[in-house]
Specification:
The protein has 171 residues and is mostly beta strands. It contains 1 helix and 14 strands. The strands form 3 sheets. Strands 1-2-5-10-7-8 form a 6-stranded antiparallel sheet, with no helix packed on it. The longest helix is centred in the C-terminal third of the chain and has 7 residues. It is globular, with a radius of gyration of 19 Å. The N and C termini lie far apart (62 Å).
Amino acid sequence: TDSYSAQDYIGDAAQWRFSDVGIWSSDAAYSGEQAVRFGKTSSSYIAMSEDKDNGMGVVSFYAKQWSTSDGAAVVKVEYSTDGGSSWVEAGEVTIDQSSYTQYSVNVNKTGSVRLRLSQKSGKRFMLDALEVGNYATSVDALNQDKWTAYGYNKKLYIEHGIGADVIIYNL
């Protein structure tokens, strides 16, 4: 689009509304052929234009500073359960790396949900490879990663994909 003008964008999984955000063919993507560039102001955002069924779990994406001279940007991850009329902040991340880095926020909301990523402060940054998971109960979250259970020294351990050990009970 090579422009920061307000526009609609149809992505692979959803339709989005861009405000002070654009896609430039000259910008390097994390994966694929394109990434979005956020503008220099706190008015920059991308928002889903339609509801996502099955709730919303973990939101993850890759982002980097557009230029090290622009410094860090703070991004709010927000959700809406009323069709985008109001937004609730689920978390925020600071984009302070010059190479693509993965960021994640757990929204964990049931029902029909929309996502918005809005720039809280800072200047330009690049965003790519956005993934939005479905709502998951705590047991479902464990099942998403490979896990193993074993007994050692009269204790039962469960190890899952993020490397944490959970002691369930003593034998």
